[in-house]
Every structure is written in structure tokens, then in C-alpha cells.
Amino acid sequence: MRRRVGLPPPPPFPATEEVLRPHGPAKATVGAVARALGVSHGSVYRHFRTKAALREAVTKRWLDRTSEALDGIAGDASRAPEARLRDWLAALFTAKRRKAGDDPELFATYSVLAGEQVGAVVEHIDELTEQVTRIVADGVAAGVFHSDDPAVSARAVFQATGRFHDPAHAGEWDSPEADADFEATVDLLLRGLRA
């Protein structure tokens, strides 16, 4: 099927993942992605001037999938803040665990890319902590959480649960005690936040 002239190329992300999976980030060039898409190099270069720009966009998209899924939990003001925070943390742990377990080759590759794309990772963490800040602020407003600064408390919650979402700990996520450790950590944090 030929594309009509003037239309942008299809999004390169699935094709990039197919190139990344067997070959890793070193061989995921703009040219390889163009071949996987069946378009010219120039079509991809119009959107991503360099291999680094393509890698940054792919990394950002990978991270955004998680934050977009979690945003629905954070924004659901019809649910109690404590339940939302517990569910948000559980969904984050499940998402990271699934990414690592379902496709370990791609997860390892994305971990390398995330290490290179510090700006995208910082933006992702800021987005996630902003979601937690909304939940904590709603809890303070409802009188169920106590915090002088919901943003500071949210950052502390995020950092305290790092073992369950930081890719550096992926090897521990399927350990027999991981679920019990997660529940104990969340229980402790919620007790600390309660008014």
C-alpha cells in the first residue's frame, strides 16, 4: 500500500520497538526504523533529525504510557484519597513489573535508553509525583491526610516506594516477599499520612 504524498509517515514507535527488541539501542538507527516502516530515510528524518531525537521520543512515549494509565486513578475524585493512593501505587508497581516480565529484552533496552535520556526521566518522575500530589492534596482537603506541603509528602511517598518502580530493582520484583513488602510499605506510608 502506497502512502499519499504529503501525509506524514506512520508513527515510528511500534517499528522502533521491533528494531530495538532483537538488536538493542545501538542498532536502532533511523534507517533501520525507516526500513521497518517501509518508508524512506527522509520521511523519518523529517520528524526526527537524529538517532538521539528518535531515541528520546521513543523513551518518552514508553514512560508516558505508564503516567497516562495512572492519571485516571489520580484524577478520580469520586474515590477516597487513601484508596486512590493505594491503587495508584499498586498500579505503578504492576505496570513496571509487567513491562519487565512480559518483554525482558525490550525492558532492558528501554532501561538503557532511559539512562541516556535523563531529561525525559526527570519529566516522567515530575509527572508521577504531581499525580501523587493531587491525591495527597485531596486527602488533606477531605481531612483524612495531614501534610503541611502535599508536594513534599508526595515526593517522599514516591521515593519511599522506589524499590517497587525503579528499574534498578527489577530483579527483586518477582521475589517471594515482594508483594508482602509492598503492602507493608504502603500501609506504613498511609499511617504516616493519616490526619
Q: Could you describe the 3D structure shown?
A:
- Helix content is 69%, strand content 0%.
- It has helices at 13-23, 30-37, 41-45, 51-74, 81-102, 104-116, 118-142, 150-160, 178-193.
- Helix 1 crosses helix 2, helix 4 packs antiparallel against helix 5 and helix 4 (51-74) runs parallel beside helix 7.
What letter string, H or E per element, gives the SSE order?
HHHHHHHHH
Give the strand tally: 0
Regions with little confidence, pLDDT below 50 for 5+ residues: 1-10
Instruction: Please work out how many helical segments DSSP would assign.
Output: 9
What percent of residues are in strands?
A: under 5%
Helix content: 55-70%
In one word, what is the shape?
elongated
Rg is: 20 Å
Structural class, judged by helices and strands? mainly alpha
pLDDT averaged residue by residue:
83
Question: Could you describe the largest sheet, including whether it forms a barrel?
Answer: none
**End-to-end distance:** 62 Å
Topology:
Blueprint: H1 13-23, H2 30-37, H3 41-45, H4 51-74, H5 81-102, H6 104-116, H7 118-142, H8 150-160, H9 178-193
